[in-house]
Known about the structure:
With 407 residues, the protein is mostly helical. The chain is built from 14 helices and 8 strands. The strands form 3 sheets. It has a 3-stranded antiparallel beta sheet with strand order 1-2-3, covered by helices on one side. A 3-stranded antiparallel beta sheet has the order 6-7-8, with no helix packed on it. It has a two-stranded antiparallel ribbon with strand order 4-5. Strand 6 (264-265) and strand 7 form a beta hairpin. The N and C termini lie far apart (85 Å).
Amino acid sequence: MATIKITQRAKVLANGENPIFLRFTKDRKTKFISLKLSCDLSQWNETKSEFRKNHPNYKQMNSALTEIRNRAEKIISDHLAKGEDIALDEFEGLFLNFKGDKKISVKEFWDEHIDDLNKSGRTGNAKFYKFSKNSFFKFLENKNIYFKDITPTLLGKYEVFLRANNNIDTGVSAKMRAIRAIYNDAIKKGCTSKEYYPFTEYKVSKLKATSNKRALSIADVHKVINLDMTEHPTLIDSKNYFVFSYYTRGMNFSDMMKLRWENIVDDKIIYVRSKTKARFIIKMLEPVQQIIEYYRSQNRATKYVFPIVLKENSTPMELEYRKERTIKKYNKDLKEIASICKIDGKITSYVARHSFATNLKQSGVSTDIISEAMGHQNLSITQVYLKELENDVIDSAMETLLQKVTK
Length: 407
């Protein structure tokens, strides 16, 4: 039979007080777990396992002890309900929210997560989590904390810190989602408990920002497609990347970069999207076929379709580095193309994907089909892409209604 008791030990601390421990006894064996609390001998009632009234904060402290006692008893009762035994070390791990005999800090767990992503070749994700971790621990001034220390209050203060450093809603949301993902992974791996989960109270969903219009009209897309490249030979690759992405359901740059000739089967492109692992089979329209033939005629040594990855057997880190360098030039070229074509607004590598979705919607294609075409896991993601378009449609409808009323 397992028993627990909150007790004061005889050893005197440096502050002259005696420490308070949780004593867990099982099969005549005992484990003492420090509660990081202490008081003078005269302020402790050993019989009742509580602080006496002569302690300045006895009410608050005894309330904390009640929560500690309830948590310990719940661990024991949960195991009894399942008919499972519980060892001393296992109880300590569950009580202190760590796995085995090692208490793991948020920073240690986060670093392991980043390391696992790098080992699995997901270097882009690893970079994002490293950036988010550096931001969070800059706010914490590199303080070592544990998952139970991440409270709604702490997250609120971190949000204030981010906004004071010129982060807008999208930036704040991205960093908060990184923390939430790390916390969820820690729960899944038994390194912390749901009991302290802060995101039930702190809602990341509140950080919704109205996105800037990133989609081109069909007319503007055609300006890019029809741009005569004889006077702009240095922009050929970037134009091709944009047009190819647009006509392949918004294929993102990372997947274009890794596209191999083996992915071209007859008149179709067959590939697995890196981000979602969704499998795509895309019929090549004429603009795509022309681009494919243009690069096929170059007879390059690599198996990659586009001249982005320049050698075989590149490591994940080398691929990430190459992606960063190429996408920087790609975005710079797109800015120049927009200027030549007299297109208002900024064009980036991601605009082709947004334009594909928006132009389909403008052509009367249902959101369900657009969602399927883009490989989204649910309609809500597609609706984010189409939000600005929906607002324009509403505005147009309101103007039509006004005209009818005023006639």
